[in-house]
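Posting this for the archive.
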Amino acid sequence: MGEPSISFGTVVVVTTDKDFAVLVADALRESGVSVGDLKVRAPDNLDGELADPACGLVVPDLDGFPDGPVAGLSELYRQAGPSVRFLAVTGVFDAEVARGFLRLRLQDFLVKPVVPSDLAHTLARLGRGDADPYPDSRIYTFLPAAGGVGNTTLALQAAVLLHQTAARRHQTTCVVDLNLQHGSCAEYFDLEPHFDIAEIENQPDRLDRKLLDVMLSRHKSGLAIVSAPPCPWEMRSYRPDLVTRLLDLVASHFDNVVIDLPRTWFPWTDSVLQGSDHVFLTTEMTVPALRHAQRLAHAVKERVHKDARFGVIINRVDAKGSPSVSLAEVKELFGDDFAGSVANDYKAVREALDQGRPLGEMAPNSRVIADLRAIIADPADIVVSSWTAPLLALLARLKRSDTPSVNKGKRHA
């Protein structure tokens, strides 16, 4: 695991489950993090341990709190000192719990059943003082405001652009198609979808790096895609811990992760948004689609963490504009949330889809590529010279100066 730079001091495990306490103790030893003292307390038997200046970490088993995980965690926060970190574990996880964790600015959490190696990895990361569960991964999430707005096309083309930049640095990019019933990301590139949900649905902890590699579809460029075979006749919501396990694993092994979210809001959608670094709401230049986007933008902004970048992308914008609404009016409608517009190049996009190839191979000079490249541009993609490095560092500090560290939710869903 590597040598940690700091110690937890005292670790308090809040649980009535002896097996859980043993699990945490074993994971602490495996993590290699230095621990001054390990205390196990029942939720109703805490006597100032959390307020002790020596206390550095609290690991609560939130299933043991009668008022629910969020209320139980809130009470622990009330008792704890200002420098205490929390690693919560819960068997109940839904949209309400995700919002509660976000509001409390929880450092990290795991969903039961807990894989011992995951617990040890998380403890090691917290022991090093990392603010981000996966500091080297960047999560780009695309969410459609309405059906047929081109969300998958934009997500895939963004992934291609990110992959081209990342590959020059020997980094990796993966697309995760969370349209688990109607997904088409693999098929857009004429690839077979290999993500077999049935094999892991009832045992998400079986999904490890080796199995993930088997279930990946890979484009000849090296871009990886997680996509399940479509089954529209079986419409249902999959277990949140399945999505949690998948995104945890992908985020820990790829430098860039691009998520194609479905329009339908599932119990795990909040957590995916919470864990994203960039969230793009896609829509088009029709009045109904713009209305949907305006309503949805407020809901999405409530769920993304404060350090995340949120923006609305207007897709298929004709050069002559729309007779009903102008681009200037759209920019005024969304204000600072307007991320940019993407030109309507229907012929080139259709040909790329029909041939199962990235748009850049078919029409490298398409305005779609130029527009999308400008939208997803990130300061980290700038070639840093000796004089720009201090400036970028200062901008990063200013961005974080008024916002406490927030768990970026790579424990999605």
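Residues 138-401 form a domain with the Rossmann fold fold (CATH 3.40.50.300). The chain has two domains: 9-128, 138-401.
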